[in-house]
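Moderator note: this is an archived Q&A kept for reference. The question asked for a predicted structure of one protein chain; the sequence and the answer are reproduced below.
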Amino acid sequence: MFEILLAYILAVFLLIATPGPVVALVIRNASMYGFKTAFFTSIGTNFASLLLITFAIAIILGAFEISPFALSLISIAGCAFIFYLGFSSLYHTLKNYQNQPQKESEPQCNKIKTNKTFVSSFLEGFGIAIGNPKDILFFVAFFPQFIHITDSILVSLNILVAVWILLDFCILMSYAILMQKAILLRYKNLIGIISDIILMLVGVFGAYYLLQAF
């Protein structure tokens, strides 16, 4: 039983820590807008994960069913949203570079930081996580494999959910804290641009892979 739990912890750690749309979004918000914005973004992703976990549990207990086609449509919508976030952020960043003199670039970054609301950060995190194909696949297909860590399904589910939420939040916060280091703050604009490009690529390749399955 303990070996199954360790395997689950490792799987969750690798899934969350591996660079993907959620990590890219948190890094981008942390570097461009600060730790508090990244914090609320992570809260949004956590809330979305809770909904997906609830959805997976309902399937495990036989209370709900969903067709592979509907799941694919949700995933494609998620890819479109991921691409939109990366594209819109990259567009506004490059536009600000064009419109501002070089000497005013830093004050402009500070101005952008104040324009990012915590509600919009939460909604970004929620939107990108609720439609993340990687998370949907994990919760629906792999999550059920770990429900036998105890003799009680209810206890097992509570442990699995607690482990996921704790690791998810801690790992994302670690990325956000890392982005506040002075050496990285010097390159925050570049990091933000790279993160936006990663978001766009994830959206494009994720949608391409899903469409090939039709």
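Archived answer notes: The longest helix spans residues 68-99.
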